[in-house]
Amino acid sequence: MAELKQLTALDAQFLAIESDRNYGHVGGLAILDPSTAPGGTLTIEDLKELITARLHLVAPFTQRLVEVPFSIDWPYWTQDEHFDIGYHCREIALPAPGSHEQLLEQVGRIYSRRLDRSRPLWEIYLIHGLEGGRVALLSKSHHAAIDGMSGSEILTALYDISPEPRDVGEPEEPTDQSPPDGRDLLLMWAKGIPRAPLNIADRLTTLVPHVDMAFAAFGLPGSRQVSRTMSRVRIRFGAEEEHVVERPPVKAPKGPYGAPLSPHRVFGLGSVSLDDVKTVKNAFGVKVNDVVICLVAGAVREHLTFRKELPDEPLLGMIPVSVRTEEERGTFGNKVSAMISPLPTHIEDPAERLEYVHSTMQIAKEGHDALPAESLRDLTAFVPPALHARAARVVTQMAGRFTRPPWNVIISNVPGPPIDLYFAGARLEAMFPLSIISDGIGLNVTIMSYRDSIDIGITADREQTPDVQTLVDGMQSELELLLAAAKTA
Q1: Which of 3.40.1000.10, 3.30.559.30, 3.40.50.11810, 3.40.50.2300 would CATH assign to domain 197-416+440-486?
Q2: pLDDT band at 218, cuts 50/70/90?
């Protein structure tokens, strides 16, 4: 039987929320200059040859899902015995003149299609015809298989630091590739039943001392009431005062970017100078991430003001945090936690917005650091798989429609390399992240640093936010305002 790796509850959640309107994949749009490649071109044959040679470095590229009968256990990844590189690597061309707007339209169409679960959950499109003789690589990978940090590891596996590709070694000899059948999976589940109480007890021991933090951190229904009650209990029974962190009494406003999604995605792409961001950081004594969040808050404030939808109270942002250890590098899957923090969309002055972000992010970090690294995994692991999938779908559909969303905007910061990268000899000019939105949470801002710039990818719903590119313009304008304020700081 082929080697198996089981999904975690958190991995499976990205499968559970998927529907014809909510998609579970993430991706990226790489802009490449093929003039540095052999012959000055990048072909579909080059793409397939490079990826084929490096499949052994990226396990999710050759693994497909297998479901446990009756959904009584989490699914598994197994080797795809019929893997076909030609299915996953595709080629299209833009009509002349290959403008930025034409590229975005094509990316939106491709991204608004679910991945085929009978195959490994990824696709890469080579897009020709961009202005200036450039080409693009549009990638889609399911979030059940990768998170932000493991996505960066895939980038490292596929790209080189010079036009000449490095030696990546030879793959190991393949093992038995026969996939498991339903009986095999049921037997594996049955063998694990005696260990289940011990696993639950171990996780409860870790989570209970921090349960007040955990409920607040993940925006669960009734989280404020549960948090306050559990904080009192902990203090009453001897918890040290400094370990009980006060959380801002903020709820996510209902409304902004909160309607049920359409099946169509739209993207805003652009870049800002990393040096300019660092200038602001140094002038105000804050962190780069504080500046990035302030850029988002300023852009969202401007956008909602123009649409006459700006609430009086601050919007709530969710900031994913990697908890992947050095030992877990290369294991893929999801190793993430989250920080929840109010955004200064209610503050008019940009310098005051930045000061607000800095102070609230410190509070959010204190609360996050008080949690065990695996708290998000532990919270979801107590729910049986079949019930978990149904609950995830119901909660997603209810968010913003009948209840307040847990947060309004997702803001993710993925560190990238400070040096040039090359794909099959073609120099990478920019890498724009593409991400996930869901019912009630219709705006995701993901940024990735590369060389001397910060590349911005904003994912939105085409029917709710067709003017999403103005949010990128707003982030660039906010940086100019902060630079001006930095001169007098």
Answers
A1: 3.30.559.30
A2: very low
Count of other CB atoms within 10 angstroms of residue 188: 16
Domain boundaries, the chain: 4-189, 197-416+440-486
Residue identified by tokens 């897009």 is: 127
- The reply to whether 143 belongs to the active site is yes
Give pLDDT tens digits for 296-331: 999 999 999 999 999 999 999 999 887 666 666 666
Average pLDDT of span 70-91: 92
Query: Quick one: residue 340, left, alpha or beta (phi over 0 = left, psi -120 to 50 = alpha)?
Result: beta
Q: What is the mean pLDDT of residues 152-172?
A: 90
Give the residue among 468, 374, 457 at the shortest CA–CA distance from 413. 457
pLDDT attached to residue 186:
78
Q: Which residues pair with 342 in a beta bridge?
A: 316
Identify the H or E element spanning 243: none
pLDDT in tens, 122-137: 999 999 999 999 999 9
Average pLDDT over every residue of 367-379: 56
Contacts of residue 192, Cβ cutoff 8 Å, sequence gap at least 6: 73
Report the Cα 160 to chain-centroid distance in Å.
24
- The per-residue pLDDT for 241 is 41
Of the candidates 396, 388, 359, 220, the one whose C-alpha atom is nearest the C-alpha of residue 212 is 220
How far, in Å, CA of 150 to CA of 153, rounded? 5
Half-sphere exposure of residue 290, counting CA atoms within 13 Å on the CB side? Answer: 27
Same fold, 4-189 and 197-416+440-486: yes
The amino acid at residue 346 is: H
DSSP 413: E
Backbone φ and ψ of 383, nearest 5° = -90, 130
User: Is 380 in contact with 10 (CB distance < 8 Å)?
Assistant: yes
CA 405 to chain centre: 18
What pTM did the predictor assign? 0.86
Do 397 and 272 contact (CB within 8 A), yes or no? no
Catalytic residue, from 143, 210, 358, 388: name it. Answer: 143
Residue 206: pLDDT over 70:
no
Decide if 84 contacts 76 (C-beta within 8 A).
no
> Under CATH, what is the fold of the domain 4-189?
Chloramphenicol Acetyltransferase (3.30.559)
Residue 473: both structure tokens together: 């313009």
Alpha carbons 263 and 249: distance in angstroms, whole number: 34
Length of the chain, please? Answer: 489
The closest of 321, 343, 234, 296 to 468, measured between CA atoms, is 296
